Fold Netrin receptor UNC5B.
Amino acid sequence: LDHLQTSLSIPEGALPESLKINVFLAVMYDSKDTILVENQITHISPTVVCGPAKSSFSKPLILKVPHCAEDVGNWKISLFYKEEVTNCWKKIASSENDVPSPQAYIQLDL
């Protein structure tokens, strides 16, 4: 989704060659698809959906999304995942490394 500055990279060897899956990536604009924010939390990027759900890869994928953060040293960046079964948002990574056993890592490119 170059026109939205959003991409998902799957490295070679992340899936067995014999396995074929259709992967999708979408930017969501409907407010019902976004996380409800609490006080002192600001959305700095769009809500992105990728799938299929429950896909397993042997190497990390790279999801790139645009953000509006300036002076990132003053921000605590968190990445959230929406549980398919419970429909609840769960923090899976943080720039302050305060998530036990993170399922993802955050890298901010300026």
Strands lie at 7-9, 24-28, 47-51, 62-64, 78-82, 89-94. DSSP finds no helices and six strands in the chain.
